[in-house]
Specification:
With about 400 residues, the protein is α/β, with parallel strands linked by helices. It has helices at about 20-30, 45-55, 60-65, 110-115, 135-155, 180-195, 205-215, 240-255, 280-285, 330-345, 365-370, 380-389; strands at about 1-5, 30-35, 55-60, 70-75, 95-100, 120, 165, 170, 175-180, 195-200, 215-220, 260-265, 290, 310, 315-320, 345-350, 355-360, 375, 375-380.
């Protein structure tokens, strides 16, 4: 059983799919682990630590992938129509695991099927109790919410907590979090730790108790529609235009009183909902901050720009790329552990030879939810339909 870990090549990506800790665990199970040289350097995991954990290193992608049964990545591999084909070195039938973003790149499943690779999109891990330790979206979003508040505090030119001094009292910053999912809840907790007065909004009524348990004030339109605001998978559902209008009016009235707004709302497979429009930004006082965590999926703020900090009449709108990568060492450690937890149940030693092998139940809920392609076919229902069409 050979496991290959590739160095991430996409821009703004500093994470790595395995750490020395998880490499050691894979080796103890009986796997042979190959790491592309320099794969962990950006995340502060030098090659020497991987070698000490039992990995074999090579600078050559072809050597690392040669005859590998499992290939681990963070972001999706480069495809042949992108100038470089990272799939070329992966053997047919191999298992490819990563955050593959098929909704954003709908042509990619057909490439995996053509290469006869079993592609697993880890962001599709269902939010069930058994899969909590494998949930890459939660682990990465958690850190993104934390980092968003720190980035906002860094750009904000006032203090976050209330400070009582001989020269006078400094009022605490007012922070509003839009979207109380994993990232939003961590943003609330972090802002509270820094001493801010925090409020939050979300379309899911279940979020109210969670927000209030962290010391935040919950702001939401009272509507019967909120009863269907959450999917079976625990994600926010897209709401009606009437609800969006009422919610926007409430948010607009609240935002003008805020110093910092953290936008975290995402809907899987769709453009991010617009929560902060031009008028809302213009209503904020100079020196205020907006952080848009959804900027790479269209943005929650109409004035945010991917990879930039935009100044609009003194309001700074932060649209950093790949927020988890900005806290890459911990993000890599959690992501690698997610992968270890996902793969361990699928690895079993054959009774007679004692050789480690893949033993996958394709009907298992976690496996079925995450598998995009297998045996040269697109098998995920969300993309198989598109393929047939």
């Amino acid at each position: 059983m050979k496991i290959a870990v590739l160095k991430e090549k996409r821009e703004h990506e500093k994470r790595v799919a395995a750490t020395p800790e998880t490499v050691k665990k894979f080796c103890s199970l009986g796997a042979e682990v190959w790491i592309q040289a320099g794969a962990g350097e950006a995340s502060r995991f030098p090659d020497a630590l991987y070698e000490a954990a039992g990995a074999t290193l090579s600078p050559n992608t072809a050597d690392v992938c040669a005859n590998a049964d499992i290939v681990l990545k963070v972001q999706r591999p480069y495809l042949k129509d992108e100038g470089e084909n990272e799939l070329a070195g992966i053997k047919p039938g191999a298992l490819l695991l990563g955050i593959l973003s098929p909704y954003n790149f709908p042509q990619s499943p057909s490439h995996y099927a053509e290469a006869n690779i079993t592609a697993v999109a880890l962001e599709f891990v269902p939010r069930i109790t058994r899969a909590q330790s494998m949930d890459v979206l939660s682990s990465q979003s958690n850190l993104a919410g934390y980092r968003a508040v720190l980035d906002a505090a860094y750009v904000y030119e006032r203090g976050m907590p209330m400070m009582m001094t001989a020269a006078g009292t400094i009022a605490p910053a007012r922070v509003m979090v839009l979207g109380a999912g994993v990232a939003g809840l961590q943003a609330i907790a972090t802002a509270k730790r820094l001493g801010a007065i925090v409020s939050a909004t979300d379309v899911r009524p279940a979020a109210k108790e969670q927000v209030e348990s962290l010391g935040g004030k919950f702001v939401m339109v009272d509507s019967d529609e909120i009863k269907q605001a959450e999917t079976a998978g625990g994600y926010a559902r897209e709401m009606s235009e009437d609800f969006k209008r009422k919610q926007a009016e409430l948010v607009a009235a609240t935002i003008k009183k805020q110093d910092i707004v953290i936008c975290t709302a995402l809907i899987p497979g769709k453009k991010a909902p617009t929560l902060v429009n031009d008028d809302m930004v213009h209503s904020m006082r100079p020196g205020s901050i907006v952080v848009d965590l959804a900027v790479e999926q269209g943005g929650n703020c109409t004035l945010s720009k991917p990879g930039e900090i935009v100044d609009v009449n003194g309001v700074s709108i932060i649209g950093h790329f790949n927020m988890p990568s900005r806290i890459c060492s911990d993000a890599s450690a959690l992501y690698a552990k997610n992968i270890l937890n996902f793969l361990t149940p699928l690895l079993k030693k054959e009774n007679e030879s004692g050789v480690l092998a893949l033993d996958i139940d394709w009907q298992d809920e976690i496996v079925a939810s995450t598998t995009l392609t297998r045996d040269g076919q697109i098998v995920h229902p969300a993309f198989a339909k598109n393929s047939a069409a």
